[in-house]
Amino acid sequence: MLKRELVNEVAEQLGDYYTQDVAQAVDIVLEEISQALVEDRRVEIRGFGSFSVRTRKPRTTKNPKTGKMMDIPERKTLHFTMSKSLKEVLIEE
User: Fold this and answer.
1) Cα separation of 85 and 20, whole Å?
2) Residue 4: which residues within 8 A CB-CB, separation 6 or more?
3) Of 65, 74, 39, residue with least CA distance to 53
4) Model's pTM, two decimal places?
5) How far apart are CA 22 and CA 8, in angstroms?
6) Domain map of the chain by residue range?
7) What DSSP string describes the chain?
8) What is the pLDDT of residues 24-75, one digit of tens each?
9) Residue 90: which residues within 8 A CB-CB, separation 6 or more?
10) Separation CA 43–CA 41 (nearest Å)
């Protein structure tokens, strides 16, 4: 689902709001989630799941093309854990 599709679906379900206003609300929500993750805070959306930032340790690996050893620095990644209710719905299908 694209952001545009999400905005259209929410606007259709609400009915009384302009698509432009719904798009602004979605932008605000996404910006707040992004900002919280940048600040290393956990974001939990009940019934959907939680997002958190994890740090991957630095490691050494071999480049498969050249065979040279490469050092991969420490980096942050996004981790998503789905809620129990979402997991149950997905398993049923």
Assistant:
1) 31
2) none
3) 39
4) 0.79
5) 8
6) 1-40, 42-93
7) --HHHHHHHHHHHH-SS-HHHHHHHHHHHHHHHHHHHHTT--EEETTTEEEEEEEEPPEEEE-TTT--EEEEPPEEEEEEEE-HHHHHHHHH-
8) 999 999 999 999 999 999 999 999 999 999 999 999 999 999 999 999 999 9
9) 82
10) 6
CATH of 42-93 given 4.10.520.10, 3.40.309.10, 3.40.250.10, 3.40.630.10: 4.10.520.10
Distances in whole angstroms, Cα of residue 56 to Cα of each of 34, 42, 59: 19, 17, 9
Neighbours of 26 (CB within 10 A): 16
CA angle (13, 19, 20) in 5-degree steps? 150
